[in-house]
Amino acid sequence: MDVNEKKKAAAHAALAYIKPGMIVGVGTGSTVNFFIDALSQSRIDVEGYVASSIATEQRLKAAGLTVLDLNQTGDIPVYVDGADEIDPYFRMIKGGGAALTREKIVASASRQFICIVDDSKEKGMLGQFPLPVEVLPFARSYVARQLVKMGGNPTLRQGVTTDNGNVILDVVGLDFTDPVNLEKEINNIPGVLDNGVFAKRRADVLLVGGDSGVQTHKPHF
Ligand SMILES: O=C[C@H](O)[C@H](O)[C@H](O)COP(=O)(O)O
User: Fold this and answer.
1) Which terminal residue of the chain, N or C, has fewer Cβ atoms less than 10 Å from its own Cβ?
2) What is the chain written as a DSSP string?
3) Which backbone phi and psi does 8 adopt, to 5 degrees?
4) How would you classify the pairing of strands 205-210 and 110-118?
5) Cα 49 to ligand 1 centre (Å)
6) Is 185 a catalytic residue?
7) Catalytically annotated residue among 85, 103, 134, 183
8) Looking at the predicted complex, does its ipTM rise above 0.95?
9) Which residue puts its alpha carbon closest to atom 3 of ligand 1?
10) Average pLDDT, the chain
């Protein structure tokens, strides 16, 4: 199976968690795009979808699916999204597509987070994928210096403005032995909107597409 077939298989498996009448949170990225395709084919009669990015909102609307405003929905029963890396404790790095802040908001407003990935995303420890940090343009240099003091090596993602009008610093070299604290520490730097460590709001169910089909993992910790 190639990587897209694995993503597609994981995305299709997530349909099992979508029930008629539900409100569904929808993440961002290539794996989620397969999930949107599967949703539009399935025609499950949900109440509507909350999008985690403008790209996802446009894709849902193009598929004829109803998009709801998070400010009108209250808590969401289920959120489906991909990840750039996921560890054995279901903590993730996200934001490869620059959508991390809205993703974290929708994920946090959701009762169940279903993470859909191909098997290349499973890691024993987070930190190989450069950590995306969303930063106000005004604070870019200051935040970069603080990240260097933490042991990181930040690079400005060229040509990218987030849905919130900000920039992304991609950071390598950080210490991921305590992801919960790392997430908090970076978010304490003035000028940081959010960062791509999802350790406080981690996934609840992990669906991994691999050569032998989709494996479902539930928390064992
Ligand atoms: O900002 C993007 C998101 O966090 C994505 O969920 C993540 O980058 C994974 O994307 P993909 O499914 O394309 O690998």
Assistant:
1) C
2) --HHHHHHHHHHHGGGG--TT-EEEE--SHHHHHHHHHHHHH----SEEEESSHHHHHHHHHTT--B--HHHH-SEEEEEE--SEE-TTS-EE--TTS-HHHHHHHHHTEEEEEEEEEGGGB-SSS-SSPEEEEE-GGGHHHHHHHHHHTT-EEEE-TT---TTS-EEEEEES---SSHHHHHHHHHTSTTEEEESEESSS--SEEEEEETTEEEEE----
3) -65, -40
4) parallel
5) 18
6) no
7) 103
8) yes
9) 95
10) 98
Residues with Cβ within 6 A of ligand 1? 27-31, 81-84, 94-100, 103
pLDDT tens-digit series, residues 63-81: 999 999 999 999 999 999 9
Ligand 1: residue whose CA is nearest its atom 12: 31
Give me the sign of the Cα torsion angle 80, 86, 87, 93: negative
Percent of the chain scored above 90 by pLDDT?
98
Average pLDDT over residues 97-106: 98
Q: Are 160 and 98 in contact (CB under 8 A)?
A: yes
> For the chain, which domains are there?
3-124+200-217 (3.40.50.1360), 131-194 (3.30.70.260)
Q: Which residues of 51-79 are buried (b: 16+ CB within 10 A; e: fewer)?
A: bbbebbbebbeeeebeebebeebeebbbb
Please say if the pLDDT value at position 210 is more than 90. Answer: yes
